[in-house]
Amino acid sequence: MNATGQISGFGWEHFHHDADIGVCGRGRSVVEAFEHAALGLTRIVTYSPIAADSRVDVECRQNDLELLFVDWLDAIIYEMATRKMLFGCFAIRIEGLALRGSLWGEFVDVVRHAPACEPKGATLTALKVARDDNGLWSAQCVIDV
C-alpha cells in the first residue's frame, strides 16, 4: 500500500504532519486538483474499492480559492459522517468562487472497507492552491483525523 495515487504527475498524495495527515491533489486544472485531493481524502480512510452506487450533490461558495478548497473537503467529510458513506468518484464545476460537485459512493462496510480512521475536518494548516511554472495545479491542506 503506498501513499500516492499518481499517474504522470497528476493525482494525489499524502504528506506527514504530526498527528494529522496532509492531502494534496494535482492536475491540469484547479478542478482536476480538487477532484484528486478528494480521492486522497478518501484514501485516508480506506484503500478498498468503493462502488459508485449512490450520488450526493454538494455546493460550496467562498471568497477565495483556498477557502473554497477547504469547504469542498469539509463538505465531503460531512457527507461521509452523516450518511455513513465513502466516496470514490468526484465531479465538480467551479464558476467564479462557487463550486458544485457530485460525489459517488456507497455505504461503509466495516469488514470490506476496514476504515483506518475518520477525518474530522480540513484545516488551514499547509493550505495552498496554486499553479506552478508548468501550468499544473495543486491543492493541499492538512486533514484533522
Number of helices: 3
Order of helical and strand elements: EEHEHEEHEEE
Query: Looking at CATH, which topology would you report?
Result: Archease, Possible Chaperone, Chain: A, domain 1
Instruction: Provide the β-strand percentage band.
Output: 35-45%
Fraction of residues in helices?
A: 25-40%
The coarse overall form would be: globular
Gyration radius, to the nearest Å? 14 Å
| SS-derived structural category | alpha+beta
The CATH superfamily bears the name: Archease domain
Q: What is the name of the CATH architecture?
A: 3-Layer(bab) Sandwich
Distance between the termini: 19 Å
In the residues, how many domains can be counted? 1
Query: Unreliable segments (pLDDT under 50, ≥5 consecutive)?
Result: none
The chain-level mean pLDDT equals 92
Largest sheet: 5 strands, antiparallel
How many extended strands?
8
Q: What is the CATH domain class?
A: Alpha Beta
